[in-house]
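Project standup — Tuesday

K.O.: blocked on the structure for the chain from last sprint. Re-posting the sequence here as requested.
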Amino acid sequence: MRRSLISVVAAVVAMVLLAMLVPMALLLRGYALEDRISRAALEVQATETVVSGAGDDRGAVAAYLDRINRDTGTETTVLFPGDDADTDIGPDPGEDHRVVDARTTGRARLDDVAGGAEFLVPVSLGGSTAGADATPVIRVVVHEPGWTESGILRSWLVLALLGLVLLAGALALADRLGRSFVQPIRALAAYAGALGHRPVEPVASRGPREVRELSAALTRLVGRIETLLERERAGVADLSHRLRTPITTLRLRVEALSAGPERDRLGADLDELEALVDHVVREARRSEREGLVAAADGVAVLSERVRFWEPLAEEQDRSFAFTSTASAPVAVRASAADLEAVVDALLDNVFTHAPEGSAVAVSLAPSAAGGLVLTVDDGGPGLPAGLDVVRRGTSGAGSTGLGLAIADQTATASGGGLALDASPLGGARVVVTLGPA
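H.V.: unblocked you, prediction finished:
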């Protein structure tokens, strides 16, 4: 935004300066020509006095013309009557129709010629108007000033310097104005980015009116979200208490029954019910775990949690292999608790349903999208064909089916997903893709 504002101001000011300074530069050149013409008019009057007073003394006229013609910009010539151009004195001898007209009419004239202007002034001799055959004519050629002559060049440099100063001032003003717009927005963006990671103070309302209104609205929204989260946490705590209390009562009553198939069946039903309640409470507490932004180092959390299961694999005489090609930390869009729950759910399924002694292989690799791919292979019986084990409440072998559902929910919420396939070890392969934070 700041660069755009400076670019627009620079373009507009540059166009305005060009529209003003170029005509002014051309006018300066025209004024320089007018100044030369004015000075040439004075020289004509002085030359006329010298010519009329010299009479037949052509040498005095020549000496005077040599002196005044030393100045650049004008050329003064005295044209005496007659067809012989050698009688003329000055750098531009010879006559044309304009000279003849001035001598015949006895009137001075100013004509535009190539490269400047030309004065033609007939000289009256002896205090009265002489005849055309005895009237000399003074010709003064005024050359148009060149583009690089000192006076014009100096004026142009002053104009250019003035234009640069104005442009620099406009850019400085635009930069200051842009800062007043951008800095409050950056502070607002930093405040929004910090939400969910750490407690932050509300951003101060400053800048343009629209930015202040946005800041106030964001502060109100954050306050409302925090209030709702507090209510949700209180509600979840109450829900957990309300659900677990009757389950505990039922479990005590079941344990009071005599040993037998009925007691075992009721115990299994209670285990399933308790797992469902744990899942419901866990999902209800997701916002408490994640905050506004969920992020964790997937490499560190997943690697540590996989190694947590290695002792159990050794106890069950299982071949347990863990490989990771993700060496650097990779932030994924999930909390550390949810990542641990994914590993626990997948490996718990393997250790529960795959026979003891069967192999387990876990691999961790970076994904093309910047996240991670967690793959779990087992040497168990595999998954029944056509069974949707991701949908909660369905599975083979009497499981509640929550393990893969938990992994699928976490993967989907992170921007990834879960896929099932046959494993090279002979059992099932579960591939969990976690999106980047």
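K.O.: great, moving the ticket to review. The longest strand covers residues 116-122. The first helix runs from residue 2 to 54.
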